[in-house]
Amino acid sequence: MVGQTRSKLKEAAPEPARSSRCAQPRRRRRATGAGEPEMEEPPAEAEKPQPPLPVGGGGNLPGGSRDYSPRRPRNLNPQNCMQMEVVAKTLLVGRFQFLSCLLEQLRDKVQQLRRRQVGSRTSVGIGEAPGPPIHLVTLFENDRHFSHLSSLEREMTFRTEMVIIAFWYRIFVGIMNLFGLETKTCWNVTRVEPLNEVQSCEGLGDPACFYVAVIFILNGIMMGLFFIHGAYLSGTQLGGLITVLCYFFNHGEATRVMWTPPLRESFSYPFLVLQMCILTLILRTSNNNRRHFIALCLSNVAFMLPWQFAQFILFTQIASLFPMYVVGYIEPNKFQKIIYMNMVSVLLCFVLMFGNPMYLSSYYSSSLLMTLVIILKRNKIQRLGVSELNFWLIQGCAWLCGTIILKFLTSKILGVSDHIRLSDLIAARILRYTDFDTLIYTCAPEFDFMEKATPLRYTKTLLLPVVMMITYFIFKKTYRDILCVLSLIFHTLQLLAFTVLAILIMRLKLFLTPHMCVMASLICSRRLFGWLFCRVCFENVIFGILAVMSIQGCTNLHNQWSIIGEFNNLPQEELIQWIKYNTRPDAVFAGAMPTMASVKLSTLHPIVNHPHYEDADLRARTKIVYSTYSRKSAKEVRDKLLELHVNYYVLEEAWCVVRTKPGCSMLEIWDVEDPSNTANPPLCSILLKDARPYFTTVFQNSMYRVLKVN
User: Where are the alpha helices (DSSP H) in 146-289?
Assistant: First the structure.
């Protein structure tokens, strides 16, 4: 249902609300069906375009976010881009000025949202949600110019991993239609020549906007959970404030959601934050409240369902809790209930994912079973009459060896030994083992080792020094007061596990950086630093640390806000339009996984491979599809594609030569996998010159070639 036009909204509003959207000189919009194009009103005083600054103090973004090519200039609305020099100055002058400034902006956004509500008809876009999502929306809009993209262009931005929330969307649209409420506003966007005019819709009634809104709202709620977690862990609300500010100051190291919202971990991680809040509450309280354990189970399920690697993260959590149980930090009865809830969550995920055996054959599920066995047999082990140290070692060795053996046994029994997991990638990284499947992952920048510059960036915002000092005092206090620091030990062990994972796989900084921010809240803990706060003013110390953090932190934020760009992929748009109008609806396509995801989403044509690469069957099909970039013969590749019933193959010329690092071009990967053909010429080069007789080129542009499989 199409909502009111912009001109009507302005007439109906009691006050003309200033648009939070930056001025857009590249595209013009007019209401759908209007006669003449209506230019958007520019801001009264637009700043001169500034060149983009490097993000996060230089270097690559976490998880392989791409470097930014020079952007076409776009004027910024001063309302959206806070002058960070002023922020740092106000923070140094007055303690609460910085927080007050943030709250003032939040209040303005809320008032702006209310002014845009017209009678019973409401037009809500993803940029109008108040609270922490504003920061993410601003970065995403600045980077993609998302508000002015057509529906096709928005679909093309979702190139990799999907989580399906169509059910929520259909319920929302159905309810809105039932009550006659408008859910989106559509415009005709005039693009620069030679691009044609396209329609662009905004509001939660637009599928792409709804999709992105759900992600940003989840991550906004996550910021509230960070505050609660930090405040509860440290015992003061200042601890929650430090956690949130540290997260923003190190935002480029903590998440990729503002650049690539569709990633599965973007849905999953907020539920891990909730789960760790609940687990901290359980560890700290003496009474075992049933509701807490039920909430722990449900948060586990919500964390595991969207993301294929979530189980390994929960395995590190069990690995952090088990030593605490062994040495007596956790009561056996409480720990047993925690294990039970984790086992129930695994079974629920197994059922909800239609019997996916990976949930039953992971290190996580194996560790749960071994932990339960050790708990139940604890008394029998004690009767052996061994010393306390040997008692600990027996349990630890039994848990470690039993988990590994049980994992391999269940994998063989359930027939899922060919499925790839995060543990397989870590093992390949440590043992230097390479094959086709591991190289497809580890050659991606986000699966590389942590950058050497990352610890330096942590140090510039004082995050690393503060966390290291807190870790030292936690271990020091452990020897004197075990019960006092019970939950602190768990978070410290979890921090060590996340550190190892992030060093081995850069993408897993997603877990390390936020956890460091939570640990930083303990700088306010009187349990750890009561001896210091008795001698100096507590507030002065905390706000002094915040002031120093803000110097580099505000620079990091300013660098992120300075990134200006616009999504534009004309070659892929031409490809998708050609597929829509020149092929049968049942024609089967094959090609690179990200491209196939776009083809399926935008054309609904059947495809033989997509980015769900951890599935063994899909990996086997993808390996056949990617053989066009090997040295195999054209006939052999054609025959294999016909066995998959492929009608058209999308060949990308860049994939023939692209090389992210030594040993990581497609040809080099295939030379490792198929050494018998290393003397043959690359098939891709042959197909680019002349695809006949086994293929016929039916479409070609600057990036893609569509080959009909003969």
Answer: 151-157, 166-178, 207-234, 237-249, 251-254, 264-284
